[in-house]
């Protein structure tokens, strides 16, 4: 994970104004990356080698995009809502990770047979998923109006997301009426 943090630092070295306040780190640390994964902002690792997680190019793009959007003043809830509908091409545009870093073939994980594994070999499955805090199952985050995020214990397709969003409208109205939302619209 330290190698992933270093890649994020390299990717942000150019044209990154930094965090707008002292509450947000310029570069995510290990704890922040684990939190982003838990809440569905960053895909779970591609795999594990012992206790070491393996990361790919999408992880790098996600982390760099998060930092760039935070520098614009966006909250994690707003970023999570944006990520739900962001295409791979859109993620590339938002993150602006230099091609030199994307073309890197070194591993962000353990050494395998004296050589690094191919870092960018396989992209993770599409969808916003995370492992629940208890580690028991994967969940999909569905951003709703008002900054509300619904966690579903299955992967959703676009139709499922649209149907869940429509069905949640009465709940969002109730939460908004009681002042339990942030008033934003997804």
What does this entry look like structurally?
With about 190 residues, this protein is of the alpha+beta class. It is about 40% helix and about 10% strand. It has a domain at about 1-130. The chain contains 8 helices and 7 strands; from the N terminus they run H-H-E-E-H-H-H-H-E-E-E-E-E-H-H. The strands form 3 sheets. Strands 5-6-7 form a 3-stranded antiparallel beta sheet. Strands 1-2 form a two-stranded antiparallel sheet. The protein has a two-stranded antiparallel ribbon with strand order 3-4. The chain is globular and about 45 Å long. The protein starts with a helix and ends in a 9-residue tail after the last helix.
Describe this protein with a few key phrases:
186 residues, alpha+beta, two-stranded antiparallel ribbon
Describe the structure concisely for a colleague:
This protein has 186 residues and is an alpha+beta fold. The chain contains eight helices and seven strands, in the order ααββααααβββββαα. Helix 1 packs across helix 3 and helix 3 crosses helix 5.
Topology:
Layout: H1 2-12, H2 30-38, E1 47-49, E2 52-54, H3 57-71, H4 76-85, H5 88-95, H6 99-102, E3 111-112, E4 115-116, E5 129-131, E6 138-143, E7 149-152, H7 158-167, H8 169-177
Antiparallel strand pairs: 1-2, 3-4, 5-6, 6-7
Helix pairs in contact: 1-3, 3-5
